[in-house]
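Throughout our pipeline, every protein is held as a single compact record rather than as scattered files. Nothing more is needed to write down the fold, since each code stands for a local backbone conformation. For reference, a complete record is included directly beneath this paragraph.
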Amino acid sequence: MLKVGLVGFGFMGRMHFDNYIRLASEGEAIELVAICDMKINELKHGKASGNMATEQEIYDLTPYRLYDDIAEMVAQEELDIIDITLPTPLHAELTCAMLEKGIHVLCEKPVARHSSDAWKMAHVAKQTGKTLMIGQCLRFWPAYEYLKSVVEEDRYGAVKAGYFFRGSGSPQEWFLDGNKSGGCILDMHIHDTDIIHWLFGKPDQVSTLARNVISESGYDIVSTHYLYPDGKVLNAQADWTLEGDFGFSMTFRVSFEKANLVFENGELKVNPNDAPGFVADLSPDSGYYQQIRYFIRSVAAGAPVTVCTPESAIGSLEIIEAEIRSADERGALITIGEKAGSLTARDKSHEFRN
């Protein structure tokens, strides 16, 4: 039985909490035993806002041991896994410390605030032999998995073009401190950058236009073109200033030689050039659920994670850093460095998925 400690009980911590409870009820060999947050006494009685609904508004945490100090939790509990859902600048130091204590780590995205810190995380994971996975959850989201399979299998020929978008109203608290969150470009837009990296490897160059709207929050609106040797036209946009009744949106449109795929409003439409279009049959499970299930099964089996290695998550962060440099120079073409973070054949594996 794998014992899990959850660190952070804001919106994402609660999303992970919901899925640990579900997985345990389905017979997975895990037990969520402890929850840690500096504000745990406040949060256990309050709501947490986010761009998707959690299972509950107020959580009953009486079955769990609660801590407001991570060191105390680790000293008191015999944990196999630490799940980190803290603000981005806290990821690197805590991840390295937990790995060095012999604990496997699932860390929320982005991997770290800066790629230099992220590479330290990957090095410690390799050095200790403990499993580290970064929660780039779209790699586990059914519609994006379907797109991945179409690309890999060359089902409809080569990709000609693609457009990816996500947007919402503004987040709150530390997210609006650009020094901590990196702004929309790092915290939200990285999802689609990561998908483009996952599908196609690192681009040769990027060109980004971005704008700061909310004071001190970093780039709040972003549009990036990704340049590849074969000339496919790829663009990803994000905007977290969409207030009013907008809600939340994540979409994509990808054009192949023999078809196009359009994902919007939770539905994936496949439109072959020479046959009637159809709605893809997708799993109803969220990427959060599939991601956590994959991680715990990999740990239980003593197998390395391959769908989202630390190195490939760092590669996505390096692309974002190039995008920020481009935005700083009003869309200048920025050449991506050595492809150290590009995906290997092992990243295409879906072992332990089902």
